[in-house]
Structure formats: C-alpha cells, structure tokens
C-alpha cells in the first residue's frame, strides 16, 4: 500500500515524500495544517487581520460579560442569554486560535480530535443558545404577562445546562469514531484547524458511520434549531401585526433586530459551507477555506459589535466604562 510521509520545511512549504508501506494498519503520527494554500508568500500579512479579529472577538465578548455581571440592571433573562452567547463565542475563538494563527503547523491526532470536539461542541451549543434567545423574544412579545414567571433565574440556568449537555452528548462520538480509524495517507488539512468532515476523509478505513452520523447530526440539530427559530418569529410577526399602534409595532420588532442579525451571521455561512462541501466541485480549495474561516470567525467577531450597537443598555454601559 502506498502512503505519504509529510514534513514541514518552512512555515509556508510542505514536502510530501511517497513511500511504500506494507503494513495496512500504518497510522500517521501527525496532521498538518496548511493555512491558505497558494498564498504562502503573504501569510505574514494575512496573519495581521486574523490577529485583529481574534483580539476584537476576545475583548468584545469579555467586555459584554463584564458589563452584564457588574450591572444589576442587566440581570434579566435577555442579558443572561446574551452572556451565554458571549461564553460560547469565547470558547469558539480560543478553540481555533492556536492553529489558525500558526502556533502549531504540526498537530497530533489526539490534539486534532480534541480541537474538533471543542469547535463542534461550541458551534452546536451556540445554536442551542440562539434557539433559547428566540424563545426569550417569543415570550417577551407574545406572552409578556408571564415572561418573568416563566424565565426565572433557576430555569434559565437549567436551560443553559441542557445546552451544554446536549453539545457534549452529541459531539463526543466524533472523536471516539475518528480514533477507531487508521490514517495511512497524506494527512494534510486544507483548513487551519480540525473539522470532523475533513479529518474523516483522511482515514483509509470505512467512514460510512461518520458520514451518516455527521449528516443526521447537522440535519436534526442545527437544522431543527433553525426551523424552531423561524417558527417563533412567524408567531412573533403574527402578534406584532395585530398591534394597532404603528409605533408599538416598531418598538416590539426593534427588540428582535439584534437576534435576527446574529442568527443570519451564524446560520448563513454554516449552511453555505455545507452546500459547498457537498455540491460544489472546485479545483481550488480556496472557496471552502474562506467560507470555513467566515463560518468560525464571523459570529464571535460580530456578535458583541451587533449587540453593542443595537442594544441601548449595553451601548450606554460601554460608553460609561470607557469615559471613566
């Protein structure tokens, strides 16, 4: 059986040497991340905007958490869900940062499996949090009299715990299944981080279980979450249209603008990437790489910006902090 041994010569150059190996159970020691293929000469310049995005993401979400924690007026259900969203965004940023910024060019199998677990875990958890935030907006507009009695702090804490347990239980099979495979081909990843749908293709054993589980997980988690979010907004729209006052309609819809923007930022790149993986056949992986980076970097970057701009209590508190 023919296999490949790959060595990193320089930060932008990877040399692969083909060798004959008789042992069918040979397993490569490392995965190699490549950054953006074909752009090796400008990797240093590309790293600058990536660094800025990570700094803004981490600082922005940390500021949101600090403001919500220190201001008693923001200890309300809407802002408690927002703090959950900020925590998942921080986790997602920290999960991708080491390999995206080129701290490690070579990554062991165990480290790669751990990274993809946390990336998919935080992604799925963020989808659950966005669904919880949609439920929050639905209650606030469609059933305001019972809003405080339903979304009590203990119940919100339980909802957050369910989001975590859901993510762990559904994503944990990914690294377990991948660990059972043998990797006997050139394990060069096109992305700057490990994703299940790419790592499983590096295996030289049967990956049908991975394909089936990954497909149904995407369909019945993020797809189901998005469907429920759309249904909640249909009911919100129905309720808002029944309000006689035009001013009250705008006021009610304005409370949903931030969440709608975040939902679009999260789900549009995700489903676009899924379509590209399955239906677009391009000789260059550049489109997949760009969409993959947008999918994982845009939500943590834009979420604190959107809520800081569109949510007056958050914006006012941030201005006070920086003026002092």
TrEMBL record:
Q: Which GO terms describe its biological process?
A: cellular response to lipid
Report the subcellular localization: Cell membrane; Membrane
Question: Which Gene3D superfamilies does UniProt cross-reference here?
Answer: Rhodopsin 7-helix transmembrane proteins
Q: TM segments?
A: 42-68, 80-105, 117-135, 156-178, 211-236, 257-280, 286-307
| Alphabetical UniProt keywords | Cell membrane, G-protein coupled receptor, Membrane, Olfaction, Receptor, Sensory transduction, Transducer, Transmembrane, Transmembrane helix
Q: Which GO terms describe its molecular function?
A: G protein-coupled receptor activity; olfactory receptor activity
Pfam families for this protein? 7tm_4
Chain ranges of the G-protein coupled receptors family 1 profile domain:
60-307
Q: Does the keyword ATP-binding apply?
A: no
Question: What GO CC annotations are associated with the protein?
Answer: plasma membrane
Membrane-topology descriptor: Multi-pass membrane protein
Keyword Cell membrane among record annotations: yes
Q: Which InterPro entries match?
A: GPCR_Rhodpsn (IPR000276), GPCR_Rhodpsn_7TM (IPR017452), Olfact_rcpt (IPR000725), OR51/52/56-like (IPR050402)
Q: Which family does it belong to?
A: Belongs to the G-protein coupled receptor 1 family.
Name of protein: Olfactory receptor
The species this protein belongs to is Pelusios castaneus (West African mud turtle)
